[in-house]
Amino acid sequence: MYPPPVARRRDIGRMQEEIEELFDDLWRVPRFAGLRHGFRPSVDCFRTGNPPELTIVIEIPGVAVESIELVALDGELQVSGERRRPPVQGTISYYQMEIEYGPFRRRVALPDDADAAGAQACYRDGLLTIVVPIRSAARKPQKVSIPLRAAE
């Protein structure tokens, strides 16, 4: 028995994105070459049973909370934003350059029973944590904007 066509397209789309990310990692261009744009934050994702929730943690230190956008659409969570280079006065010469700046976007597949409309997000100490409740029965996917609050 095959999954429905929408689920197959979503799986193929995820596989294509993973292959692109693999090639990006394999053929990583030096940052100073000017060919790289943005960075790829690290993501942890885990599911708990009591209460049933999916927790997504994204490492994005130095990103202003105002630049972060969270959207759940077509069975996936899309997180995007931008880490801007701090302004520097005068002329500078880099001796070492390892921190990546620029726009980013990460996608995380959501299970069919995820309740994106009930998701909550918090940004604290450079970690963005999104908690998505798991409901007992699967519902039709919808586009949902998830509000984000800065931790105090």
Largest sheet: 5 strands, mixed
Number of helices: 1
Mean pLDDT metric: 83
If classified by CATH, what would the architecture of the domain at 38-85 and 94-150 be?
Answer: Sandwich
Q: Which CATH class of the domain at 38-85 and 94-150?
A: Mainly Beta
What is the percentage of strand-forming residues?
25-35%
For the secondary structure, the number of strands is 9
Pairing-aware structural class of the strands and helices?
alpha+beta
Shape: globular
* Low-pLDDT regions: 31-36
Multimeric organization: single chain
Backbone CA Rg: 18 Å
- Proportion in helices: 10-25%
Q: What order do the strands of the largest sheet run in, or round the barrel if closed?
A: 1-2-7-6-9
Give me the strand/helix succession: HEEEEEEEEE
User: End-to-end distance, in Å?
Assistant: 50 Å
Strand and helix map with partners:
Layout (H helix, E strand, L loop, with lengths): L4 H22 L16 E7 L2 E8 L9 E5 L2 E8 L18 E8 L10 E5 L2 E7 L10 E2 L2 E3 L2
Parallel strand pairs: 6-9
Antiparallel strand pairs: 1-2, 2-7, 3-4, 3-8, 4-5, 6-7
